[in-house]
Amino acid sequence: MKNFEGLNYYEILKIPSNSASFEIKRAYQDALSMYNEDSLVTYSLFSNEERDNILKTVKEAYSTLIDENKRAAYDTILLDSGQIEVSITSIQNQRKPPHAHTCNMTDSDNFDERVRKKSRKKEIETLSNEILSKDLISGDDLKKMRKAAGIELSEINAVTKISASVLKSMEENRIESLPPNVYLKNFLRQYAEMLQIDPQKVIDGYLKHISLTQKK
Amino acid sequence: MTQIYPIGGGKGGVGKSFITASLGALLAKWGKKVVLIDLDLGGSNLHTLLGINDQQGGINRFLDKTVKNLENTAVSTVIQNLFFISSSLCSMEIANLLHVHKLKIINAIQKLSFDYILLDLGTGTNFNTLDFFLTSNQGIFICTPEPTAIENSFRFIKAVYLRKLKHIVKRHSFNSAVKKAIIGPNHEAIASPDIIEIVLKHDPDRENFLRNRLSEFKFKFILNQFRKNLDATIGDKIEDLCNRHFYSNFQFLGNVGYDVRIHDSVLSKKVFIHKYPYAPPAIDIKKITEKIIKRRPSIPVTGEIS
């Protein structure tokens, strides 16, 4: 019988070395279900001692890989011994969970990334800091920041899936066609995240602005 | 090239004879010339599953030298291209086969000229069964998805594996310390990890040789009497597990569904595949047959028999 001799932690959990934490967790659950005492598929295959050793190694593998610092240290050891290559090491290249909404879009991740990049310039930062320091934030303010960042409404729509008409109503302060606050807050948060500005300030400022407008 | 498939598995009642008969029938329908040999000595009943009333005997006539050539004891069946060699008229003491008789049978089997030779083996892990299983470099074990059958299957695999290891050490040049430890007076108590350890300690150069020889042996397996509510990935998991923890090669051939009509066909002494060609288990075995036909291994068929 071979145990895990010569296998590294990634091989023991049967995952690639750039796995994300959700994959490590899943692989760990799979390994436990395979090697635990009640498992049908390993029934009587191992002695108690062998099983204990296997489970101990599986747990060790998991606790090392799930901890970012321990994992980085472990990867360095593997790199030095040539067991994995630089190009596929963990942290920098970790796989991300798939986006639930973009499964039908081609190149969706890149698109998302491109749109977000637009708002990272210096001059935009100054403008948005100025607006965000105000107590009230109107739809016009939102629009100004969006234009400065060079992002189109259709792009926000494509990434966030908020309908174009709602986005328009938000920017044009058309309170009567805005969704209930629960939804609106979430939409504002996503809008702010697209422009890479503080979502909480946007939500607070905008809601204050529309409640004042309603009172008038 | 002739393909020999011993069909075993530690537990009784898991369907070894049923699978042997069905696989044989389907291989014959593919136009292959097939012979089924009942090597469940002392517990034969493959003839009954094939609907053959054994009057003339088979292996017994070969062993008592009435017939010189084993091939001449093969009888035809209701299925074209499918032949059968029985052991039901062997002596009441046949289960305790003499060593020379065992070698005689194995040598004769390796000389038969058929496309496929399927050996229906008995239960348990006695040396006869293990050596028949090692007639070839590949074998199929049948299991059901139950702890009892899985337990006996692992026991069977380990016993085959250990016997294979011992054959390799006996037949090839190893350091005398290794040979002495393994073939010495207490050698029956040695387990397979011990042998690898012994070789590692006394003859490290031969370790890779031993591993390579072990990896040449291909275990294939089928999960029989598979009920719908079970986890369909059990077979793949066992394959993966065995490939990780043994040096030999494991391939899962597929599940065969449970069906009450199999019992009916046994009662009526008819070949199930012939009687119910479209029943789910028949379809399952068809898929397995196709897998076997398409993946012909290029390795030689002769195993290591001492």
Could you write a compact summary of the structure shown?
The complex is a heterodimer of chains A (216) and B (306). With 216 residues, chain A is an all-alpha fold.
Average pLDDT of chain B, rounded to a whole number, is: 89
Query: How many helical stretches of chain A?
Result: 11
Strand content of chain B: 15-25%
Q: How do the SSEs of chain A run, as a string of H and E?
A: HHHHHHHHHHH
Judged by helices, strands and strand pairing, the structural class of chain B is alpha/beta
**Share of helix of chain B, binned:** 40-55%
| Main beta sheet of chain A | none
Number of strands of chain B: 8
Q: Biggest sheet of chain B, strands in spatial order? A: 3-4-2-5-1-6-7-8
Structural class of chain A: mainly alpha
Largest sheet of chain B: 8 strands, mixed
* SS field, number of helical segments of chain B: 13
Number of strands of chain A: 0
Order of helices and strands of chain B: EHEHHEEHEHEHHHHEHEHHH
Strand content of chain A: under 5%
Protein architecture, described:
The complex is a heterodimer of chains A (216) and B (306). Chain A is an all-alpha fold and 216 residues long. Chain A has helices at 9-12, 21-35, 48-66, 68-80, 108-117, 122-132, 139-149, 153-160, 164-171, 181-195, 199-215. By secondary structure, chain B is an alpha/beta fold. Chain B is built from 13 helices and eight strands. Chain B has helices spanning 16-29, 46-49, 59-63, 99-111, 127-133, 147-171, 176-183, 192-202, 207-215, 234-245, 260-267, 272-275, 280-294, and strands spanning 3-8, 34-39, 75-76, 82-85, 116-121, 138-143, 218-226, 249-257. The radius of gyration of chain B is 19 Å and the shape is globular. The two termini of chain B are 23 Å apart. The mean pLDDT of chain B is 89. The interface between A and B is medium-sized, with 10 and 16 residues.
